[in-house]
Amino acid sequence: MERVREGLVPAYLLLCLILGGASAAGLWANMLLQLLAIPIILWSLLSRPETPLSPPARRLLLLAWLAVALVAVQLIPLPPFLWTLFPGRGAIVDGYTLLGLDLPWLPISLAPYDTVSSALWLLPSLAVLLGMLRLGFGRSGLAWSIAVVAALSLPLGLLQVTAGSFFYIYEISDFGLYTGLFANAAHLALLLLVAVPLLVALYLSAASQQETEGDIYRRKLLVLLALLAVVAGLILSASLIALALLVPVLIASIAMFRRRKRRISRIWALALGLLALLYVGVVSFTSFQNAYIWEEAVAGPNSRHGAVGTSIGAAVDFQPLGSGIGTFADVYRRYEEAGAVDRIYLNHVHNDYVELLLEMGLPGLALIVAFLLWWVRRTHAIWLSNESGPLQRAATIASAAILVQSAVGYPLRTAALSAVFAACCALMARPRVRKEEPRRRDEGKRSRKARHLSAG
Question: Fewer C-beta neighbours within 10 Å, C or N terminus of the chain?
């Protein structure tokens, strides 16, 4: 049973990586992942944790439950005198008045069914988070699951680019690009980026295993081959955002080698900070922001810059409570220019923070800020503590890449990447468990001899 507990979450994460690479295009696969998440969540809640939860883990779970509660609150029906006071509801009132109907009880969400549907997407990441914190897990198993899927995506991506659409997994995909098990090329590139620090952590952890020198050498060789495959996949990908992030991720991964013996100097910390600021400027104000045509990205009706500005304007109109989870596409159609609409439409704003501000309002913004504060404190503690291991530091780098890319995309809308992000957060929340090393035979003999010594 203990092996089942430890292997359950890595196996489920591996399944998320294989089946959860799309949002709208992977309806049946995501439904299966959501159904499988329910028993994992229930088992996690009903079982006693193998070790007491640390304060950071309890705070992280509190934030997760607050997010679930916020979604539930958006579905509570409210009397007309109350919901009509909320901004953005004037069109609904006018519609009922025009039809001559009495105002019904309605929830905060403008589309309750879409909110329920979107809430179900939280199940895989919640299952991974609860499972890792309460059921126990093998840290290296989680890292290997991500690394193996990322490395195997390289041959599949080459077949997709060279052999045509037959090798694409989903009907709605970035055809002609390197997507692997994902529908979106940028999401695969992000998974490859996340795998880099995790592979470095596996390499650093190999020497600490109780194995022979030959086993350690073979393990390190396997990790290096996987790392080369991942970097090659990043170079072949069409995601300029991931390529721009590759430099700071590599520098942070190299810093893991230096951190084995001593703390990172301020020079290294300053270099990483400057690279992060440089990245924000590059992806926000240059052609790196869009992997396609820069003119369309700035001026087109479906551009990311234009969409973000339009979405911010919509979000302001729906404050302080937002329009409800899953309502972005419907709300955005009210604000986009009718004359510029063509056959291409936006289902996400390519900025998770702005979209959540629109849908969840100021309470959602407060949750985001609270989580970011938690993440900064944990990252600071992990990198300064000698008790933290390579995988915990790798989790900070991987989660940082996902958080940054969420400002120019929507990676957390897929079950695969949201599960990876939850796994990284769980690694950051749990303290490192050190196993006692077995005593050598000669040490045992010396200790037994010492019992018969006496001072004369």
Answer: C
Q: Of 22, 32, 291, whose CA–CA distance to 171 is shortest? A: 22
Q: Phi and psi at residue 426, in whole multiples of 5°?
A: -65, -40
Determine contact, residues 224/203, Cβ cutoff 8 Å: yes
Identity of the amino acid at 362: L
Q: Position of tokens 């900064």?
A: 376
SS3 state at 78: strand
The residues, any chain, with a CB within 8 Å of residue 349's CB and separated by 6 or more, are: 304, 307, 308, 311, 328, 332, 355, 358, 410
Tokens 């940054």, located at residue = 404
Supply 205's token pair.
Answer: 């952890």
Angle between helices 390-405 and 266-285 (to 10 degrees): 20
pTM of the model: 0.83
**What type of residue sits at position 185?**
A
CB 138 within 8 A of CB 10: yes
What phi-psi label fits residue 95: left (phi over 0), alpha (psi between -120 and 50 degrees) or beta? Answer: alpha
- pLDDT tens per residue, the chain (456 residues)? 566 666 788 889 889 998 888 877 778 888 999 999 999 999 888 887 777 888 999 999 999 999 999 999 999 999 998 988 898 888 888 888 888 888 999 999 988 988 998 888 889 999 999 988 887 666 667 777 887 787 777 788 888 878 777 788 887 777 777 787 888 888 888 888 888 888 888 877 765 555 566 666 776 677 677 777 777 777 777 677 777 788 788 888 888 876 665 555 566 666 666 666 665 555 545 544 444 434 444 444 445 566 777 888 888 888 888 888 888 888 887 877 765 555 556 677 778 888 899 999 999 999 999 999 999 999 988 888 777 788 889 999 999 999 988 887 888 888 899 999 999 999 998 765 544 444 444 444 444 444 444 443
DSSP string, 319-384: TTT-S-TT-HHHHHHHHS-GGG--S---SS-S-HHHHHHHHHHHHHHHHHHHHHHHHHHHHHHHHH
> Do the Cβ atoms of 283 and 239 come closer than 8 Å?
no
Residue position matching structure tokens 């003119």: 295
Question: Quick one: tokens of 204?
Answer: 């650093």
Tell me the angle at which helices 185-206 and 390-405 cross, rounded to the nearest 10 degrees: 170
